[in-house]
Amino acid sequence: MKQNYIFITGGVISSLGKGITTASLAAVLEARNFHVTIIKLDPYINVDSGTMNPNQHGEVFVTEDGAETDLDLGHYERFINTKMSGKNNFTTGQIYSEVLYKERQGDYLGSTIQVIPHITNIIKEKIIYGGKGYDIVLVEIGGTVGDIESLPFLEAIRQMSVDMGSEHIIYIHLTLVPYISTANELKTKPTQRSVKELLSIGIQPNVIICRSSRAIPESERNKISLFCNVPKQAIISLEDVDSVYKIPGMIKSQGLDNYICNFFKLTAPAANLSKWDRVIYEESNPIGKVNIGVIGKYVTLPDAYKSVIEALKHGGLKNRIAINIKLIDSQKVELYGVKLLQEVDGILIPGGFGSRGIDGKLMGIKYARENRIPYLGICLGMQLAILEFARNVIGIEEANSTEFMPNCKNPLIFLVKDKNKKNNIIGIKPNKLIGNMRLGSIKCKLINDSKVRQIYNTDKIFERHRHRYEVNNLIWENTQYLGLKVTGRSKNNKSIEIIEIPDHPWFIACQFHPEFQSNPRYGHPLFIDFIKAAYKYQNR
Ligand code: GLN
Predict the structure, then answer these.
(1) Based on the domain organization, do 502 and 420 belong to the same domain?
(2) Ligand 1 centroid, distance to 498 Cα (angstroms)
(3) With a 6 A CB cut-off, is 403 part of the ligand 1 pocket?
(4) Is the pTM value of this prediction over 0.85?
(5) Ligand 1: does its nearest atom lie under 6 Å from the Cβ of 379?
(6) Shortest-distance Cα residue to atom 6 of ligand 1
(7) Ligand 1 atom closest to Cα of residue 413
(8) pLDDT in tens, the chain (540 residues)
(9) Secondary structure letter of residue 270 according to DSSP
(10) Quick one: how many helices (H) and strands (E) in the chain?
(11) Residue nearest to atom 1 of ligand 1 (CA)
């Protein structure tokens, strides 16, 4: 069977929720028993999403196979069952470095290297490779039509219709239909212009999804249909909603999935969205609300902690508890003290890099430990929990991480020794920080007599990692007698993966990132239990 592709482009402005829309459509198609996957093409020139500043670009999402990718892949995994991998995301920088590498190897035999066909060929190859084996491949093109950067991607997807046969390709254009309050009107002109722009590069959209603050009335649908040459049933209205979990239902109710099946000549049972209905019910019928303090340093852009925030919400859904997240700047804790944490029912310290704001985080951990407030430490949040315990309970002088103080007297946290080279891009001199990370899904054993063993209800788990430093484990063999217990280790026992304080209502920290495996339908055991503990603390 020939593969079917759906390309999703964005028009008028960015931030219309293209990632969520793509993920929601994929969820509906998956609920019709199709085997679907999603690929994200990022027009920026960075080669490695892993080194991008979270304050500018949001979090780095880590896949099972250890790829550091755009945060949209997190949306995809939260909406569909297919697991993302390094094949599901690539940037202009990666495409160009591959072409330049080949050129240096002499692969092009001296011919003139051009955007068409050399760059576009690699783009097409990567799309085909990433989508192999799936019934329907959704491809989201980052940026907005009209951006210089995305032109080669648009040209490549245009060519795919010729290569594959237009009956196997659907182009969806997501645009903004603004409401002008003074005129009390929804305006379709920006959509018309954006479609014109697409047409000028040879792409006629098959479907237009209109983002708007209100539902698009019949008359405007007709207008868009007529001016943009798109059948009326393929004009989809996605007005703002209070919950992103409602979007799959909105897509289904307007028959977009039927339109797609008819177009591709596929038959499939109707979409069963009962799992999403359950999520919507859990979200809109809470029995309580907890305040969770997340102490971090990238607090100006909440997307920097996207998966953590989502995982907390999912933990709330499964307890039917609403979550109020307070993003707390760790440097403010240094300035104003732990009074900033007074109203929280649980404290979470997420992953992070570098020494800025470390002291504020340590203050937060001490406060949680001494006041018996539930604490969940993730990656850096675990390393710091160990330092806090070492300094303030055991009394190890100058206990530190070589990340913050390379020549410290007691390096309890130090560089991961077996360097992982798989992240190097061949042909490009590696950035000095790339290539020495422990990345991706790694097996971890949980000890029997532990809280995590109960929470996970198994003694073997797989969780995703992204760290360069780790616990100097020799020192920790005897700490359990002092009140800190190592309850999870890597398969070979070499790496400490989880610690707990048994004499605390809920103090768990892990070297891995559980947030990357949480989704609204099932939640993640650690987050579900953490929220339960926070609720218990609130009602103590
Ligand atoms: N900076 C720490 C390390 O590299 C923690 C990383 C993280 O929190 N993701 O090990």
Answers:
(1) yes
(2) 14
(3) yes
(4) yes
(5) yes
(6) 467
(7) 10
(8) 679 999 999 998 888 899 999 999 999 999 999 999 999 999 999 888 778 888 788 899 999 999 999 899 999 999 999 999 999 999 999 999 999 999 999 999 989 999 999 999 999 999 999 999 999 999 999 999 999 999 999 999 999 999 999 999 999 999 999 999 999 999 999 999 999 999 999 999 999 999 999 999 999 999 999 999 999 999 999 999 999 999 999 999 999 999 999 999 999 999 999 999 999 999 999 999 999 999 999 888 889 999 999 999 999 999 999 999 999 999 999 999 999 999 999 999 999 999 999 999 999 999 999 999 999 999 999 999 999 999 999 888 889 999 999 988 888 999 886 434 343 333 334 444 555 789 999 999 999 999 999 999 999 999 999 999 999 876 677 677 789 999 999 988 889 999 999 999 999 999 999 999 999 999 999 999 999 999 999 999
(9) P
(10) 17, 23
(11) 353
Q: How many CB atoms within 10 Å of residue 373?
A: 22
Number of domains in the chain: 2
Q: The domain containing residue 139 runs over which residues?
A: 4-278
| Distance from Cα 354 to the centre of ligand 1, integer Å | 8
Asked if 476 and 518 touch (Cβ cutoff 8 Å), the reply is: no
Answer for the pair 206, 43: CB distance below 8 angstroms, yes or no: no
Query: Which amino acid is residue 134, in one-letter code?
Result: Y
225, 245, 278 — which closes off a domain?
278
- Check if 404 has its Cβ closer than 6 Å to any atom of ligand 1: no
Candidate from 380, 405, 437 with most ligand 1 atoms within 8 A of CB, to mutate: 380
Q: Domain containing 309 — which CATH number?
A: 3.40.50.880
For tokens 């949001």, the residue is 58
What is the Cα–Cα distance from 373 to 367, expressed in whole angstroms? 8
* Residue 117 preceded by cis peptide, ω within 30: yes
Q: Looking at this protein, which amino acid is placed at residue 389?
A: F
Per-residue burial over 158-184, b = 16 or more CB atoms within 10 Å of its CB, e = otherwise: bbbbeebeeebbbbbbbbbbbeeeeee
Domain end among 233, 253, 278: 278
CATH code of 265's domain: 3.40.50.300
Q: Give the whole-angstrom CA distance, residue 101 versus residue 86.
A: 19
- Mutation pick for ligand 1 pocket among 353, 402, 418, 497 (CB with most ligand atoms within 8 Å): 353
Question: Which of 405, 423, 468 gets mutated to test ligand 1 (max ligand atoms within 8 A of its CB)?
Answer: 468
Record the tokens describing residue 304, joined without a space.
Answer: 């920097």
